[in-house]
Structures are given as C-alpha cells and as structure tokens.
Design brief:
The structure holds two protein chains of two kinds. Chain A is mainly alpha-helical. Chain A contains 23 helices and six strands. Chain A has four domains: about 230 residues, no CATH class; about 70 residues, no CATH class; about 55 residues, no CATH class; about 170 residues, no CATH class. Helix content of chain A is about 60%, strand content about 5%. A four-stranded mixed beta sheet of chain A has the order 2-1-3-4. A two-stranded antiparallel ribbon of chain A has the order 5-6. Chain A is globular, with a radius of gyration of 30 Å. Chain A starts with a helix and ends with a helix. By secondary structure, chain B is an alpha/beta fold. Chain B contains twelve helices and four strands. The two termini of chain B are about 25 Å apart. The chains are: A mainly alpha, B alpha/beta. Chains A and B meet through α2, β4, α5, α6 and β5 of A and α1, α2, β1, β2 and α4 of B.
C-alpha cells in the first residue's frame, strides 16, 4: 500500500475517533465559548482591569482636584480641611494641601506619588490640547529620525557601552564618508486640528500597561512626529495581543494531539495500530496530520481575518512544528493525566515566554529576533523580514522539532509506550533507543550532536532572561548557567551508556566516550554557528555562549575534560556521583570561559 | 458521606502526586514566572535609570548639536550632567552618529521661542539600540523642561490654565505597584489554577482507566471519592500560597493580613476546583473537560477583573495593608458560592453514579 494512502487512512481514523470521544456537542460549545471569550475580552478592555483599584488612599483639601485624580480608580479619595489632613497624615498614602503634594517616605508613599504624577501629566495634556492656540500649549515638537548603524548586530549586544560616552572634549570626527544632509524644514505640515484630535485620542488610549514603567510610551498618532511626552519608544502592544490570538488556538490544538497520543497508551489501546505492518513514521504522521492541517487552517483564517499577507504563515510554521513535536514526546512520556498536565503547563509556559518575551523589545533591540514571533510583529508593522532574519530566528525551532520527532518515532513501540517507569528513567530509555549496539560510539557522537540545538535554545532563553540585569551580574550568571546547561547536555550520552550496559563500565570506555562526546558537541556547535548564529558570536555575550571559532583543539580539550569529570564521578560513586560530577564540570567550564573571555587570570 | 473514606482517597491521591514528583515542575514553574517577571521589571528600571548602577554614574553621552546658536535647549543640554554637547554641522554629526561616536544628534531651527509657530526639533537616533532607548529617556526629561520654558514664554496666549500641583523630589521608578498590584495576586492565584486543573485529571483518569468502577464496588460512595479528591486539591492551595508568602517575606516583601489573604485565596480556589469537578463529572474525558474548563476559567477571570472588588483586587488591597470595606463581604460571598457549588457537585455525583450503574 502506498505510504501516503496509509497516512491519510490513519488521519481519517484519528478525526473520527477524536470526534467520537469528545461527543458532537463539544464543537458547537467550543464555538460558543470562543465567542463569549471575545465578548468578555472586549468588555474587560472597555472597563479596564480592576486589579489595583483603591490601592492608594489620598487626602485632598480642594474638591476641584477630582478632575485630576478622580478618574483614576487606584486612588481612594477623601476630602478634609488642611488641618485635619495634617493631623491624620499617617492614615493617608498621599495628601494634597494647597497645591502641594506630600507623601510618607515609604515604598507605598513613593508609588502613590508616582501614580499621581502620571495622572497629573495626563490631566495637563487634556487641558492643553483644548487650547485655542495649540502651539502656545504645545510649543515644542520633535521629529525623530532613526539612523541605521552599520555596526548594528555586533555592537549592540556587546556589553561594552556602544554609543560610547566619550571622554574627549572635542567633537568626534567621522572616519567614513560624510553624506550631505539638508537642514530639516522648520515648518509643521500637519493641520492644527488633526494634531489636536490626535493628542486627545492618545490620552484615551489604554494607560494600564504604562503604569509599571516609563520606559515604554504610547505610540504617537503622527508617526515620527511627537511631543516631548510621546518620546518613549512605543511598546508594540497591539501586535503582541494579536500574536496571542494566533498562538492560543495552536496551543490548544497541540493539547488535543498530546491527549490523543496519551489515549493510545491507556489500557494498551494503541496495540491494534502497532500490530499493523505500518511503520511508526506512518502512524505518527497520520495521527499528527489532522492537527497540523487544523493549525495551518486556523492560522490561515486568522491571517485573512486580520487582513495580513499570507507570508505571516512562514514564521508561524516552525512554531506549529515545535508544538506538535513536543506534544508527541510529552504524550509519550507521561505516566498519568496529572503528570501530563504538569509537564504540558510547564512546557507551554516556558515556550510561551521564550516566544513572547523577546517580542516586547521588537522596536528596541535586535535580540528580539531570537523569537520567530518578532518576525510576525515586524510583518504586521509593515516591515518585511529578510531571508537571513528568517533563518536566524527559525532555524532552532526547525532543528529541535526534527530531533524531537525523530526521538518520538524511534520510540513509538510497545515496550516504550506501555512502560510505567518514572520520568527520568523513561527519558533515559528514550535516549538509549538511539544507541546502536554495533556502533555505540557513533551513536554517542550523534546523540551529543543532536542536543546542541536544544542547548542553543536554552542558552538563548538565558541570554534573554539575564540580558536585563545590570552588566557584571548578567555576565556572571550567563557564564555559570550556560556552562551548566552545556555540561548537562554533554553528559546525557555518557549517562545513558554507563547505566544501560555493563560493557561500558571500564576506565578505557569512559575515556573513549568522553572523547567522542567532545567531538560530537564541537562538531555540531561549530556547524550550527557557522550556519546561523555567526552574527552574534562576536559580542561579549555571544562569546560566552559560543566561544572561539578559531582554534579547535583547546575547546576540544575542555569538552573532553569536563565530560571525563562527570564520567569519573559516575564511575566512582554510581548515580550519586552524577550531580557532583556535573558541578565540578561546570566549575571547570566557567573558569575556562572567564579565562578566555576576560583573561581574568592572565 | 464517610470521613474515613474521604481521608483515604485524599491520602491516595496526594501520595500519588508525591510519588510522581512532577508537581515539582508546577512549583518550579511558579518560581520561573516570579523570576521572569521580576527580571523584566528590574531590567526595565535599570534601563530607565542606569545611573543607579555602579559604573554608570558620571557617564556623559555625546550629543551632536546643529542649527540655531542661541536656543534655550542648548543651555539645558549643556547644563545637564548627563550629556556632553558638541557644536557640529548636521552632516558630519549624523555620519559620526552612524559610526556610534555620538549617542544622538539634535537639530534646532531658528524659530523664535515666543513666535506663533511651534519649535520643531529634529532628533536623530540609532535605530534598534538599547542605548538609544536610554538616551531617549534622558533627552525626554530635557525636552520636557524646555517645553515648560517655551510654554511660560507663551503663557499669555493660554486661556485654560490647569490646576497647579507641586511634587516633592525627583521622578522615581519603583517596584511597589508592580509587586503588590500584579506579582502578588498572580503568584497567590497560581496554585488555584493548578489545583483546579488537577481535579479534572484526577476525576477523568478514574473514568478513562475504568478504575472508578472498582472504587465504587467497595463500601465507598461516589461522593466520598469525589470529595476526597476535591479536598486533596484544595489542601495544596494554602500550602503553596503560604510558601509564597514566606518566600516573599524572606525577600523583604512584607504582606500584611496574611490570614485573610490565605482565606480569600482558598475560598476562590475552592470555587474553581468545584467548577472543575463539575466539568470533569459531566464530560468524563480529559481533553474535552480540560479544554472547556480552561476556556471557561479564562472567561471567568477576565470577567471578574472587569469589576472592582474582585478577589484578585482584594488580595492586592489586603496585601498592601489597606483592605477595602467590601473585602469581607466578598469573602463571605465566595464561601457562600463554594457551599452552593459543593451541594451541586454532591447531588450531581450521586445522579451520575446512578446513571452509570443503570446503563
């Protein structure tokens, strides 16, 4: 029988079975729930989120101040005479007496003043934008011109201060050619009434996100033309919400796939499928096909609905594959429903933060490109992404999905599916499936090489996470955690081999495995770097993660030594030796990194 | 209902959780969320005020200044300790900015400060650069000062004058509102979400593995089994929430009204858990129940947030030490709702057990 025909057959079984177990009533219910969700979201965004209502207690002596703070639900406002306010000042977070603001010097007092200040700015802007003579109230306008710097990628990530604060007192002289720039026109070419309506509208736009920080500001309705108030870089908030609309259904569909895989394992129902002459590839492809098609269809419909171009599908495709591949593995390793829930909640939160967090910085920093969703934001904002950007942000997703699918297919057989061992044991079993009996060392090489995309992914996540911390701290944390992640990945092959068979329990084999692991890791690391990430390797952060493309034998020695450390520890103390071995290896790795990056011991 | 049987089921499900150890993942997840959001805030704050960090104080950013010689803006820029201003022609200044030898370039036209036309400044910045974002924020303060000066020069043309307020001290960026108004409610309600997902798993699993029939054939009643599971999930909530309060306390974040906070969280999670139990009893199948329930929970939470005095709001208020007048009424309401749902769950479980036996 034709492979495609069997895939299609399994796919149609899958659809019928899923609809059968779920009952026919669920689909209309899902539609109804979705509609209610949209309605409630609309309602809540109208009323605003009432999370901090009444947080601050304010005392005022002037009823007119209601205009200023009355509209902010965060304040509970009481009116009293100045003397009474002063007497009971302990029971207020902020008091306003005779136009002067007083607050206790506590965290809450300062926060109340900050909130009041934002409200006051807002109130002032509303008053000013109603002036007859708008340019008397808004005498200063700023046209912001973005200049593309050629050094973009390399320089911005380096920890050194880029727009270098110079010590010299004479003006800097450009080295390159100077392009002639005409002095900008001093006139304003937007009609005054348009400016006025724009200003009023921007006061109404949702202020709740901007409560927490002043770094991001509202988008100016006039593009690059702004008042001093609108100068902060805008948060691509609308696009982020839009992306959430895209990702949410994908996440749920992958949940159904996960459950369908798990269902095959309940009461050994999957035995029927396994007893057919179909290969695991065919079965998995057939089972995944309806979900894959569904996800693509949902994305397509949403894309058309929001009126975007179909190229939006391109960056979402690797995300879909990644969700499906991980759903397969999670469905295959969990022992019980609650385990399935915990693992999938954990996985989806981590994956979502990896996908979402960088997109906040879409307008601020190139690091945001580690997430494919940033490409979606760029696309929505009307900037087409380039092929190299696409490669840069999606390659890790494609690679890790491929590896996960491969592992899933390899292990899709009776003794794995119906085993009831614990999570760690099962993962070890899954990995050991990749070890060939006749060529164990080649297998270790391959396993280690296949872990590299995951290591990169985790390290990227760490980079994004720590990148926000002040400089020396972020670098130290990154060095330590990156080393640890690498050591864990490298030890996987070794650990599996040592505990799977007595054959490998001699000193000689530990040495060989260490060498093979080191070679495998180095090979894949260099290959992947060469293909995708060379752009960021030259920065300080990059060099922590992906040190030295040049010399090969020094990193080889490092990898060999650290794996061997874990090996020795395992050999001497058995499974208890694993953690101490990892710690020792990470310490060595860190010292090595510190030595080479900063020459701290030179 | 029999208390001993309920206790037995509770023990069975809790020890199952402990054996699998995967609840560690759920706890790890909460730590992850806390870390992630705090990192985000700390990061944003240091971006706003890098001078708070050692090594950044006393740093001056180079600004290229072109155009009008006698502008008030130039005085403000030169007087600021944040910037070093260089008089330059526009073209070489922009070229130097491209090479990152400057942080920004400002062009100021010769518009008279008290003229009819606005002063339109052109600001050149490096695109997609975090440093640019910082310089941007610092320049904003200067521009605001200058705007104020221009406004006072043109004040005779302003007919609507806003109420004047004088604020103490500098603008400051703090974490208070973020921690008490967002992080604490979020962290304390995480256990509620986890527990209500858990009850669905526990109930549907007994149906789908067909172990419920075995359990029902013992002297235990279906209500004992269901309530054992519900209590197993409920008991996890105050434990996790309490652990969070201790951890926050160790970090110097003091939460007041600990007992009412825990009560509020426990009552709200009981409501969620009971809704979860009803969903699971109705569908008896995990993916459907989880799907319907999680969508419903998102709807419920969004809807609750649309109104003031919702449980999350009240927890935030209690935690800051200023409970609203309605706090305890809402708490009582939640407990009442939980009791109603409890009665509903009990009778529905009995009915569905009868149906199973007769079918």
């Amino acid at each position: 029988m034709n492979v495609f025909a069997s895939i299609l057959t399994i796919a149609s079984w899958e659809v019928r079975k899923t609809l059968g177990t779920m009952g026919r009533s669920v689909l209309p219910l899902a539609v109804v729930l979705f509609l209610i969700l949209i309605a409630v979201t609309g309602f809540t965004s109208q009323t605003g989120l009432h999370l901090q209502d009444g947080m601050y207690i304010a005392g005022v002596d002037d009823p007119d101040l209601a205009d200023v703070i009355g509209s902010d639900p965060r304040f509970r406002i009481y009116q009293a005479t100045p003397a009474a306010l002063y007497r009971d000042r302990e029971s207020y977070d902020v008091i306003i007496v005779g136009g002067d603001v007083y607050a206790p010097d506590t965290g809450k007092g300062r926060a109340a003043v900050k909130a009041l200040r934002t409200d006051y700015d807002r109130y002032k802007n509303i008053v000013y934008s109603q002036q007859q003579d708008l340019f008397a109230a808004y005498p200063l306008w700023i046209d912001v011109q973005d200049i593309k710097s050629e050094l973009d990628f390399v320089a911005t990530q380096s920890g050194t201060r880029v727009a270098a604060p110079s010590r010299s007192r004479s003006p800097p002289v450009p080295e390159g050619p100077v392009a002639e720039i005409e002095a900008p026109d001093s006139g304003v070419d937007i009609p005054v009434e348009d400016l006025r309506t724009g200003l009023l509208e921007s006061q109404d736009s949702d202020s709740e996100i901007y409560r927490y920080t002043d770094v991001f500001g509202q988008e100016s309705p006039f593009g690059t033309f702004k008042t001093p108030h609108q100068l902060s870089p805008p948060l691509p908030f609308d696009s982020i919400i839009l992306i959430f609309v895209f990702i949410f259904p994908l996440y749920f569909t992958s949940q159904f796939f996960m459950m369908s895989v798990m269902n095959e394992r309940l009461e050994r129902r999957g035995e029927i499928l396994l007893s057919t002459p179909l290969s695991p590839w065919t079965i998995i492809a057939g089972k995944a096909l309806p979900y894959f098609a569904g996800m693509i269809a949902i994305t397509l419909v949403l894309t058309l609905w929001v009126g975007q171009s179909l190229s939006l599908l391109l960056p979402i495709l690797p995300v879909i594959l990644f969700f499906l591949a991980s759903a397969l593995i999670i469905g295959m390793v969990s022992r019980s429903f609650k385990e399935l829930s915990f693992i999938s909640i954990f996985f989806s939160t981590v994956a979502t933060s990896y996908l979402f967090f960088p997109t906040i910085f879409a307008n601020v920093h190139v690091i945001s490109l580690v997430s494919p969703l940033t490409l979606v934001i760029l696309e929505i904002q009307g900037e087409a992404f380039t092929v190299s950007q696409y490669f840069y942000s999606t390659s890790l997703f494609f690679l890790t999905s491929a590896v996960l699918l491969y592992v899933g297919v390899k292990n899709f057989k009776e003794e794995r599916l119906f085993s009831h061992a614990g999570l760690l044991t099962r993962i070890r079993e899954f990995v050991s499936e990749g070890v060939s009996r006749s060529h164990p060392y080649i297998s270790v090489f391959a396993i280690t090489a296949l872990t590299v995309p995951f290591v990169f992914m985790v390290q990227m996540m760490l980079l994004v996470l720590f990148f926000n911390l002040p400089m020396p701290l972020s670098l130290v944390l990154l060095i330590v955690s990156a080393a640890f992640v690498e050591e864990v990945a490298k030890s996987i092959g070794l650990y599996t081999l040592l505990f799977n068979s007595e054959r490998f329990a001699s000193w000689k084999t530990v040495a060989i495995i260490s060498a093979v692991t080191a070679a495998g890791f180095l090979f894949a690391e260099k290959l992947l770097l060469f293909v995708t990430l060379s752009q960021i390797t030259e920065s300080v952060f990059g060099s922590v993660l992906f040190l030295s493309l040049g010399v090969i034998w020094i990193p080889f020695l490092l990898h060999f030594a650290t794996v061997a450390l874990v090996g020795i520890s395992l050999k001497l103390r058995g499974p208890q030796g694993y953690i101490p071995g990892l710690v020792a290896a990470s310490v060595v790795h860190c010292l090595y990194n510190l030595y080479f990056i900063r020459g701290w011991f030179a | 209902m029999n208390a001993r049987f309920i206790g037995l089921i509770m023990k069975k499900d809790l020890s199952g959780l402990l054996n699998e150890k995967t609840i560690l993942l759920a706890i790890l997840l909460q730590v992850f969320i806390a870390m992630f959001s705090s990192f985000l805030m700390v990061g944003l704050t240091t971006m706003y005020d890098p001078s708070a960090l050692q090594g950044y104080s006393g740093v001056r950013y180079g600004i290229g200044y072109a155009g009008s010689e006698d502008s008030g803006l130039k005085t403000y820029l030169s007087e600021s300790s944040q910037f070093r201003v260089f008089d330059m022609e526009l073209s070489p200044a922009v070229a130097a900015l491209k090479e990152r030898k400057l942080s920004a370039v400002v062009y100021v036209p010769r518009t008279p400060p008290d003229g009819d036309e606005p002063v339109k400044i052109t600001l050149y910045l490096v695109q997609n650069d975090i440093q640019s974002a910082i310089v941007n924020v610092k320049l904003k303060e200067i521009f605001l000062e200058y705007e104020e000066e221009l406004r006072s020069l043109r004040s005779d043309r302003i007919e609507l004058v806003p109420v004047a307020l004088e604020f103490p001290g500098e603008r400051s960026e703090g974490f208070y509102e973020f921690i008490y108004g967002l992080l604490i409610p979020l962290l304390l309600f995480m256990p509620a979400i986890i527990s209500s997902a858990l009850i669905i798993d526990l109930i549907t699993e007994e149906y789908q593995r067909r172990t419920l029939e075995t359990l029902v054939s013992t002297p235990m009643a279906i209500t004992d089994i269901i309530w054992g599971k519900i209590l197993a999930c409920e008991v996890l909530v105050p434990i996790q929430a309490g652990a969070w309060l201790v951890l926050l306390g160790l970090n110097g974040i003091v939460v007041s009204h600990v007992l009412p906070v825990l009560l509020q969280v426990s009552a709200s999670s009981m409501v969620l858990i009971l809704v979860g139990a009803l969903t699971a009893l109705y569908y008896r199948e995990r993916s459907t129940a989880q799907f319907v329930f999680s969508t419903a929970v998102v709807i419920l939470i969004l809807l609750a947030l649309a109104f003031p005095n919702n449980p999350l709001n009240l927890v935030a208020l209690l935690a800051t030490g200023a409970p609203a007048a309605g706090s305890y009424a809402v708490l009582a309401g939640m407990i009442g709702l939980a009791v109603l749902l409890g009665i509903l769950v009990t009778s529905y479980a009995k009915r569905s057990a009868k149906k199973t036996l007769s079918s």
